[in-house]
Write a structure and sequence with these properties.
CATH superfamily of the largest domain: Nucleoside Triphosphate Pyrophosphohydrolase
Radius of gyration: 22 Å
CATH architecture of the largest domain: Alpha-Beta Complex
Shape: globular
Order of helices and strands: HEEEEHEEEHHEEEEEEHEEEHH
Number of helices: 7
CATH class of the largest domain: Alpha Beta
Structural class: alpha+beta
Number of domains: 3
Strand content: 25-35%
Distance between the termini: 15 Å
């Protein structure tokens, strides 16, 4: 499916991250006064003004006369306007209202939502990496927020992203869906799971499908990806095929079973089945499969 046909969140190209500026303090200082600042509070919510569908972000100069060392540089918009991220705990007073990332994904323009996803993931990593994993000494941020250095042993740490697969498995006529105990009643989705050390993505797909549903897949192919900063995953979407076979539910799921296209359409239309949210790659994978059946 073409890029234009994808309708899940955070697929926008986002900001030009302008990595060459991360160590150019003079350039960042010059950009700060008129830069837009995305403030993220301790709960991971954006703090800005304006209407929910048209957020207004403060300019740097309204928050601090000089660029704070803890302001993280996100990148440049096409207009050349700079964007920074700031942890809400650094401010004495936070703008209102607050908006969570899932809501922003459905309500904000694509660029702003993608910048929020970037800011949330980056600040979450910073907040949870304040001490060196090698010697326990405190870390200091550098490279405009994209590196944490230990002055004691010299170890450097960089923002991490956890790769996870999400897969639409079909036996040709039916789609394999599962549900977790913690989900709302009647919520079903495609299967997903995190990659383990030493695995290829294809091996992860095969292992997760076997662990969660006891289904052996024949082959899989990559479909699309979605940043998923809840808090730091990258969802790598696949389509997979399997021979017709019974489902054996694993320990991670409450239930799993095959659904025909007719069942999916009728149960979704009647409200008997809840699909994943429309901004997710999970929903796109299901809709993409339905579009071909």
């Amino acid at each position: 499916m073409s890029e234009s046909a994808r309708r899940f969140a955070f697929q926008h190209a986002g900001l030009d991250r302008a990595e060459h500026l991360r160590e150019d303090s003079a350039a960042l200082d010059a950009l700060w006064p008129q830069a837009k600042v995305l403030i993220v509070d301790a709960e991971g919510q954006a703090r800005c003004q304006g209407e929910p569908d048209r957020p207004e972000f403060p300019h740097g100069v309204s928050l601090a006369g000089e660029r704070p060392e803890y302001a993280s540089f996100l990148g440049l918009a096409e207009s050349g306007e700079a964007w920074f991220a700031l942890a809400g705990e650094r401010l004495a007073e936070l703008p209102v209202p607050a908006l969570d990332l899932r809501s922003a994904a459905t309500r904000w323009p694509s660029l702003q939502a993608s910048a929020f996803a970037q800011a949330r993931g980056l600040l979450h990593w910073q907040q949870r990496n304040r001490f060196c994993g090698g010697c326990g000494h405190s870390l200091s941020l550098s490279r405009a927020g994209f590196c944490a250095r230990c002055s004691q042993c010299g170890l450097e740490q960089y923002p991490r992203t956890d790769p996870a697969i999400i897969v639409a498995v079909s036996d040709g006529e039916r789609l394999l869906l599962g549900r977790q105990t913690s989900w709302p009643e009647n919520r079903w989705s495609v299967l997903a799971g995190f990659m383990e050390p030493g695995e290829s993505l294809e091996q992860t797909v095969a292992r997760e499908v076997m662990e969660e549903a006891g289904v052996l897949i024949r082959e899989c192919h990559y479909a699309a990806s979605q940043p998923w900063p809840f808090p730091s995953a990258l969802m790598l979407g696949f389509h997979a095929t399997a021979d017709e076979q019974p489902v054996t539910v694993g320990a991670e799921l409450q239930d799993a079973r095959w659904f025909s296209a007719t069942e999916l359409r009728s149960q979704s239309a009647s409200g008997a089945m809840l699909s994943p949210p429309g901004f997710s790659i999970a929903r796109w994978l299901i809709d993409d499969w339905l579009g071909r059946h």
